[in-house]
């Protein structure tokens, strides 16, 4: 071997040791690249600017930082050290936060025009910091229908799972529920798997073996600290566009205006270069809202609000869809563990059945209602609520979510302030098929409650009818009640409608083929994509967080691939 060959071998060795060396990366929660936005310069420049440090945004930022300089802007704070985030028993606490402008709360409540009380995350990690933690992949049929590459999808899921997915403990209550599902005919039993297959299974959880939650923010451990900047309490007000440009005739997104917690304005721009972009990952409410605030939306609506029109795009805010949640609370004579979702029934008829348990669980359901609403109930209802809430009871909650759903609605702005909630209508159960699925799901839930396996966790003297009637009388939503409301119901269809809640899986507003193309690029502008659940037509898998994180990773890989290809082409030309 001559000297030249030795050099090649040595440099190869260098490359290999770089690839396999232990990461120089930061460990959560001590990210050197994460700061409050008050520390941001007045003006700064990056290759990619991601709006929204949520379930998709964190995975996307970590991935893009492998090959470019990335800015991630999050309107909330960090999830670390917060009990409401990290502990299972904290679930729900901040979902009932009434003060929608408290930036320090991990969630911002909103009420749909239908009257269903819901929440949007406001914390690094997004929905994964406030949800029930269930981790389950999308079905292969979903992946095929959307047209994603199956192998890159699987690689991306695996990347997520290495960091944030765990096998849940499955104690007594969850085990009885699982066996009850099988007894009720939700078969076969598929054991523990992340895969979406018909039957009963145990899924993953983002709560680890010590019961500690790991959010999408932990994926930032993968980020290159030298090429990543994360600003917290950074509220983006507008995406800026250049309308005359060297690259194309279309308006080109080239920067964002954001404010820090002191209200000080900052600007961040993408550096010159055709491949550099702004990516919206602000969620199903935030992404369509910010497009409209930036002038992309239905012309008449923007005019009504006095917003300057950039592109007339009537589909922005359309296809808003929310999977209804219907539940039955079951007081238990025996102690139950504190559990969120662990086992799930995936039925053939398109209804997913899950369960949670805890001490005084009734209280936590009522906890989900805003204080103002709880205290405005008529006296008879009030007494009832107090009774259920005060009793120290053990209870389980069996709930269902329907696939899809088919019914959908729309989103409109109420104000020009990005911190205000937009108005959103979901039209729950407008389509008959959704109602049919709910009824079938309820019939299965009733079978589970009646099953031998579950008998230990219910009082035999409490009839199914009384359990259901209890639910009908709790203030679960603010939907208008019929004038002749007697607090009773005669059919399961009525039950489904009267007890409708949300499972917080709302999606749509920037759907593929309507607002963005199949590469998630916003139509009729350049340099702008949307990568989050607002692009979906249906909620993937039983619970979407796995797939929303996956999409962040998947699109990050895709974007870097085309960046590399473009650079190669350029150097070839030069
Ligand atoms: C993060 O920093 C704190 C304070 O310096 C330290 O106590 C903690 O151990 C660090 N955590 C990790 C995971 O490195
Ligand atoms: C936000 O919450 C943290 C603790 O979670 C607290 O230290 C801080 O003072 C709060 N900030 C404001 C402005 O309330
Ligand atoms: C969140 O929940 C915790 C626990 O119930 C509560 O102490 C806190 O006030 C809530 N709100 C905020 C803004 O953190
Ligand atoms: C992806 O993984 C699923 C199981 O999780 C498997 O069924 C499917 O065949 C895999 N797809 C590819 C392209 O490898
Ligand atoms: C970040 O920069 C430092 C100092 O230049 C370097 O030692 C380190 O390898 C870099 N980290 C990564 C992940 O590239
Ligand atoms: C919340 O953040 C927004 C924008 O960052 C800011 O204008 C507002 O003053 C903040 N509110 C509080 C209570 O800190
Ligand atoms: C209430 O009235 C509607 C028609 O207005 C009827 O369909 C429904 O069955 C009534 N409900 C009860 C509980 O009587
Ligand atoms: C893009 O703009 C063209 C010309 O104004 C219009 O015909 C087309 O419908 C627009 N595409 C979308 C998806 O809005």
UniProtKB/TrEMBL annotation:
Needed co-factor(s): FAD
Coiled coil regions, renumbered to chain: none
Record family assignment: Belongs to the GMC oxidoreductase family.
Pfam family, any one: GMC_oxred_C
InterPro entries per record: FAD/NAD-bd_sf, GMC_Oxidoreductase-Related, GMC_OxRdtase, GMC_OxRdtase_N, GMC_OxRtase_C
Keyword Transmembrane found: no
Protein's name according to its UniProt entry: Glucose-methanol-choline oxidoreductase N-terminal domain-containing protein
Positions that bind FAD: 123, 236, 504-505, 533, 544-545
S-S pairs: 438-496
Keywords for this protein: Disulfide bond, FAD, Flavoprotein, Signal
Gene that encodes it: LOC110682130
Taxonomic lineage from the root: Eukaryota, Viridiplantae, Streptophyta, Embryophyta, Tracheophyta
Listed GO MF terms: flavin adenine dinucleotide binding; oxidoreductase activity, acting on CH-OH group of donors
Leader sequence residues: 1-25
Domain Glucose-methanol-choline oxidoreductase N-terminal: 283-297
Domain of life of the native organism: Eukaryota
């Amino acid at each position: 071997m001559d000297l030249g060959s030795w050099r090649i071998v040595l440099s190869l060795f260098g490359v290999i040791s770089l690839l396999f060396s232990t990461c120089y990366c930061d460990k959560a929660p001590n990210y050197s690249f994460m700061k409050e936005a008050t520390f941001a310069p007045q003006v700064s420049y990056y290759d990619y600017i991601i709006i929204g440090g949520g379930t998709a945004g964190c995975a996307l930022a970590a991935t893009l930082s492998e090959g470019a300089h990335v800015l991630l802007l999050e309107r909330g704070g960090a999830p670390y050290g917060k009990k409401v985030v990290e502990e299972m028993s904290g679930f729900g606490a901040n979902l009932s936060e009434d003060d929608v402008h408290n930036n320090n709360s991990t969630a911002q409540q909103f009420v749909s025009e239908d009257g269903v009380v819901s929440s949007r995350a406001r914390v690094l990690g997004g929905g994964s910091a406030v949800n029930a933690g269930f981790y389950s992949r999308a079905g292969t049929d979903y992946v095929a229908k959307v047209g994603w590459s199956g192998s890159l999808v699987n690689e991306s899921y695996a990347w997520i799972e290495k960091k944030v997915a765990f096998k849940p403990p499955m104690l007594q209550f969850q085990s009885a529920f699982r066996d009850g599902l099988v007894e009720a005919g939700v078969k076969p039993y598929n054991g523990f798997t992340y895969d979406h297959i018909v039957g009963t299974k145990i899924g993953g959880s983002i709560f680890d073996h010590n019961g500690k939650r790991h959010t999408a923010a932990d994926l930032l451990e993968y980020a290159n600290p030298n090429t990543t900047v994360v600003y917290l309490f950074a509220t983006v007000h507008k995406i800026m566009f250049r309308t005359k440009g060297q690259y194309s005739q279309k308006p080109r997104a080239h920067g964002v205006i954001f404010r820090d917690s002191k209200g000080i304005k900052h600007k961040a721009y993408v550096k010159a270069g055709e491949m550099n972009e702004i990516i919206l990952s602000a969620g199903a409410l935030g992404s369509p809202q910010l497009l409209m605030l930036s002038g992309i939306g239905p012309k008449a609506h923007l005019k009504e609000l006095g917003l300057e029109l950039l592109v007339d795009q009537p589909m922005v805010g359309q296809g808003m869809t929310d999977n209804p949640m219907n539940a039955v609370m079951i007081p238990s004579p025996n102690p139950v563990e504190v559990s969120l979702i662990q086992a799930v029934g995936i039925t053939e008829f398109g209804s997913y059945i899950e369960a949670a348990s805890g001490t005084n669980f009734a209280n936590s359901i009522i906890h989900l209602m805003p204080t103002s609403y709880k205290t405005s109930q008529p006296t008879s209802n009030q007494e009832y609520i107090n009774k259920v809430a005060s009793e120290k009871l053990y209870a389980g909650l069996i709930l269902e979510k329907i696939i899809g759903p088919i019914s959908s609605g729309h989103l409109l702005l109420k104000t020009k302030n990005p911190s205000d909630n937009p108005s959103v209508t979901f039209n729950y159960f407008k389509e008959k098929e959704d109602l049919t699925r709910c009824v079938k799901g309820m019939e299965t839930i009733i079978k589970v409650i009646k099953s031998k396996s579950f008998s230990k966790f219910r009082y035999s003297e409490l009839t199914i009818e009384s359990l259901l009637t209890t639910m009908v009388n709790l203030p679960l939503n603010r939907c208008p009640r019929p004038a002749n409301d007697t607090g009773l119901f005669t059919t399961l269809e009525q039950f489904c409608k009267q007890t409708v809640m949300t499972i917080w899986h709302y999606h749509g507003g920037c759907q593929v083929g309507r607002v963005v193309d199949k590469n998630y690029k916003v139509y009729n502008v350049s340099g702008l994509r949307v990568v989050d659940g607002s692009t979906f037509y249906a909620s993937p898998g039983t619970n979407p967080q796995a797939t929303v994180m996956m999409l962040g990773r998947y699109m990050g890989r895709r974007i870097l691939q085309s960046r590399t290809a473009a650079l190669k082409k350029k150097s070839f030309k030069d």
